[in-house]
Amino acid sequence: MKHWRIKLSLICNYIIFAILLNSVGVVILQVINDFGVNPESASVLEAYKDLSIALASFLLASYIPRFGYKRAMITGLSIVIIGSIMMPLIGGFAMSQLLFAMVGVSFALIKVSVYSTVSLITDNTNDHASFMSILEGFFMVGVLGGFWLFGYFMDISARSETITWLDTYWVLAVIGGLALALLISTELDESSVKTDNDNSSPMQDFWDMLGLIKYALVIFFILGAFLYVYIEQAINTWLPTFNFQVLQLPDAMSVQITSIYAGALAAGRLLGGWMMKRINWFYVLQGSILMGIVLVILVMPLTGGIEPGSVTGWGDVSLAAYLLPAIGLFLAPIYPTLCSSVLSALPKNRQSGMTGLIVIFSALGGTSGSIITGFLFGRMDGQTAFYFTLVPLILLFLILIPYKRQRESFDLNNE
């Protein structure tokens, strides 16, 4: 296969970051249990990750082509390897905050570089789309594997005095080291990279990006993207804690069963893509949101009245523990479809600015979802916190209606 070494390297990069980025919920559960951190304080871990991604993307994206894609990826991998080594050596909540800040900055370097590199190693549009699908597929494999990897060490630590869940990071450091060695030893020809924007300043790029907000289409998109990521990250981050505190699952099982959510997201994106070849995207998304609302309303009553200590094995697990993560099946098509619809409506020379807005408001949505849900967990209870996801779901359903009208009008104005 042509360029197989660099393609394998990009896949390995994505897998390590999939594990680290989606470990926030696991780490929140553990810092609450092991370090005595309250849920409101623990929720800020999502902010350390998301805001560092947004800030680093804005500050560094325009410089990465000049710095070099390969060098940027080497830098990003090196940072997370160092963080993964520091985590078990130092431990504690402060180190957890630092780790996710390091992961966020590194992912900004990796994401911009990986997406740009794909165009250098593919020959045509179909090849590009195909490899991007493979990359995203392996990202989900990393998410699934990460839940089971953390769950494995958490299970062992319950029976051992020498092994803790923090030892998971030694494995991640080794995986990162192997990915780094592969990347360093792989050639990447970047000679075709153009730097047409050398004469523009970062401040000019910033104002061009903000100028997009004058369009009603972009305003409705920003609201929709914010609400979607709010919902997705609220569930992804707090589902392990919900499983532990409300469904009374042991901590290792609480993490492992969360992998159903990641699997449902992967399956939902594949199914949504197939459906939208046959059904208008708007009806697919509205139907998906309605099904998500119905699922929450039907499943949440099943989560009450479970006695502590009643779950000792997989046979004792409540049906709700399997059904609630299935909401990922309905949420999955929303975000990529929204992003695709707004980007395709804009001229090509404005799409990079729109991508910047996507990154920034997605990060803000994820942080808000985690912090508000953590506040509800701490001040009320887990059931109330998850019932509250109905509010952004309903708002998203309503916002899509004017967004669709603006999308159609915007297309007509640009024909």
How does this model look, in words?
By secondary structure, the protein is an all-alpha fold. It is built from 20 helices and no strands. Helix 1 (4-21) runs antiparallel to helix 7 (92-121), helix 1 (4-21) crosses helix 8 and helix 11 packs parallel to helix 18. The radius of gyration is 21 Å and the shape is globular. The model has no long low-confidence stretch (mean pLDDT 82).
Summary of the model, kept short:
With 415 residues, this protein is mainly alpha-helical.
Offer a few descriptive terms.
415 residues, mainly alpha, 2 domains, 77% helix
Task: Summarize the topology.
Blueprint (H helix, E strand, L loop, with lengths): L3 H18 L2 H12 L3 H4 L1 H17 L3 H4 L1 H22 L1 H30 L3 H33 L10 H17 L17 H10 L4 H30 L5 H6 L2 H17 L5 H19 L19 H5 L3 H5 L2 H12 L5 H29 L2 H6 L2 H24 L2
Helix pairs in contact: 1-7, 1-8, 1-9, 2-7, 2-11, 4-7, 4-18, 6-7, 6-9, 8-13, 10-18, 11-17, 11-18, 11-20, 14-20, 17-18
